[in-house]
Amino acid sequence: MGAGHDHGGQALRAGARHRTRLWWAAILLAAFLVVEAAVAIGTGSLALLSDAGHMFTDVLGIAMALAAITAAARARTHSQQTFGLYRLEVLAALANAVLLTGVAVYVLVEGVRRFTEPPPVPAAPMLVVATAGLVVNLVAFALLRAGARESINVRGAYLEVVGDLLGSAGVIVAAGIIALTGWSYADPIVAVLVALMILPRTFGLARSAIRILVQAAPKHLDVAAVRERLAAVPGVCGVHDLHLWTLTSGMEVASAHLQLEPSAELGAVLATARHALHEDFAIEHATLQVEPATGGGTCAPADW
């Protein structure tokens, strides 16, 4: 028997909130990207170019996040997509991680190459553009911060903005050093440092997305504890084929077979089991199959 709540509806309502903030962030970042890229090419600054590259992945990542949210909302009415297209959100997050990793690797390679003979870079344009970029990224950071706690998809865009924010701060530092000392090595050094700071975050995002895609049990849920709690429901004498996985951010799903004692009341067992999963583990959607005990006799108490 199946039991669950309209958690998909909650996810869609959250998606609508995220969509508005993502749109504003995308427009703001895209407008500034054109300016930053032009100045980066004109000055030859690798640090500024790396920041522009990060901002490009910000815009592209937000665009993919918006596409995933829109597709998930439309798929809800499709009879053949019984779970919707919530996994598109996870795929978009993984793609964001791959893109940002590519940018970081390029900056690392180019930065190491420039250590041999760094080209002269004008500090004033770097400083002006980097400061403006810092302000733009702070605004985007504020727009996406709340949604990053609820959605892995928004978290991907959020982490890219965090990386870009770090990049802008790094360019400001590099521009200040060049302006005060004329030391051109500050440009590739800062670019490499920013890339190294971003890589661990992208790896973490990719790891989270892959865990969902391979249907691993959520990290915050103890499978043994869930099994024990279901086995403790009055009337249940055995639990097997227990599966826990994440459909998309904040949407944990469970399925299990419950063996019942002969005297158990089916409705009461299902209601209690649903309530336990909801209250103790925040699992909103569960498919529970009930089975009679083998041989029809009274079951021995579960020993796990």
Automatic annotation (TrEMBL):
<keyword id="KW-0813">Transport</keyword>
<feature type="transmembrane region" description="Helical">
    <location>
        <begin position="22"/>
        <end position="49"/>
    </location>
</feature>
<dbReference type="GO" id="GO:0005886">
    <property type="term" value="C:plasma membrane"/>
</dbReference>
<dbReference type="InterPro" id="IPR058533">
    <property type="entry name" value="Cation_efflux_TM"/>
</dbReference>
<feature type="transmembrane region" description="Helical">
    <location>
        <begin position="189"/>
        <end position="210"/>
    </location>
</feature>
<dbReference type="InterPro" id="IPR036837">
    <property type="entry name" value="Cation_efflux_CTD_sf"/>
</dbReference>
<dbReference type="InterPro" id="IPR002524">
    <property type="entry name" value="Cation_efflux"/>
</dbReference>
<protein>
    <submittedName>
        <fullName>Cobalt-zinc-cadmium efflux system protein</fullName>
    </submittedName>
</protein>
<dbReference type="InterPro" id="IPR027469">
    <property type="entry name" value="Cation_efflux_TMD_sf"/>
</dbReference>
<keyword id="KW-1133">Transmembrane helix</keyword>
<comment type="similarity">
    <text>Belongs to the cation diffusion facilitator (CDF) transporter (TC 2.A.4) family. SLC30A subfamily.</text>
</comment>
<feature type="transmembrane region" description="Helical">
    <location>
        <begin position="121"/>
        <end position="144"/>
    </location>
</feature>
<dbReference type="GO" id="GO:0005385">
    <property type="term" value="F:zinc ion transmembrane transporter activity"/>
</dbReference>
<dbReference type="InterPro" id="IPR050681">
    <property type="entry name" value="CDF/SLC30A"/>
</dbReference>
<feature type="transmembrane region" description="Helical">
    <location>
        <begin position="165"/>
        <end position="183"/>
    </location>
</feature>
<feature type="domain" description="Cation efflux protein cytoplasmic">
    <location>
        <begin position="218"/>
        <end position="292"/>
    </location>
</feature>
<feature type="transmembrane region" description="Helical">
    <location>
        <begin position="55"/>
        <end position="73"/>
    </location>
</feature>
<dbReference type="Pfam" id="PF16916">
    <property type="entry name" value="ZT_dimer"/>
</dbReference>
<keyword id="KW-0812">Transmembrane</keyword>
<feature type="domain" description="Cation efflux protein transmembrane">
    <location>
        <begin position="24"/>
        <end position="214"/>
    </location>
</feature>
<dbReference type="Pfam" id="PF01545">
    <property type="entry name" value="Cation_efflux"/>
</dbReference>
<feature type="transmembrane region" description="Helical">
    <location>
        <begin position="85"/>
        <end position="109"/>
    </location>
</feature>
<keyword id="KW-0472">Membrane</keyword>
<dbReference type="InterPro" id="IPR027470">
    <property type="entry name" value="Cation_efflux_CTD"/>
</dbReference>
<keyword id="KW-0406">Ion transport</keyword>
